[in-house]
Amino acid sequence: MYSDKVMDHFEHPRNVGEIENASGVGTVGNAKCGDIMRIYLDIDDATHMIRDCKFKTFGCGAAVATSSMATEMVKGKTIEEAMQVTNKAVMEALDGLPPVKVHCSLLAEEAIHAALWDYAEKHGIKIQGLEKPKSDISEHDGDEEY
Ligand code: FES
């Protein structure tokens, strides 16, 4: 049912954790299942390059695998390039997901966008093509443990 790549990223997820004093943090909720994803970005202000990216999730295996892959894909990219890392691109990089699990892959993309939104707001900049994700629940950042 799951590709070898999905299983690999699920069993050995990359970039799990937090970044202290992150440049941007985004937390989103999945309307379908109620699961939560938080992404931390460390961004170089001069070059807009994403130096580091970490995630924490209260989500299923598909959410873990897609977030692991998504964080790998945005690391070392500029903000503009990271905007191209869609859930579709992440799923392709993982050799696909079962259709019922596609909604899980949206969590990573939306959390990255929420974190970029947070960064843009803090720095008073506009990121081409970026909108605040509807699933953004970042107001609650920082207090809850999961
Ligand atoms: Fe909730 Fe996959 S079932 S993220």
From TrEMBL:
It comes from the Bacteria. Residues 1-123 form the NIF system FeS cluster assembly NifU N-terminal domain. Gene3D superfamilies: 3.90.1010.10. It holds the Pfam family NifU_N. SUPFAM superfamilies: SufE/NifU. InterPro entries: NIF_FeS_clus_asmbl_NifU-like (IPR017787), NIF_FeS_clus_asmbl_NifU_N (IPR002871). NCBIfam families: NifU_clost. This is Fe-S cluster assembly scaffold protein NifU. It comes from Enterocloster hominis (ex Liu et al. 2021). The gene is nifU.
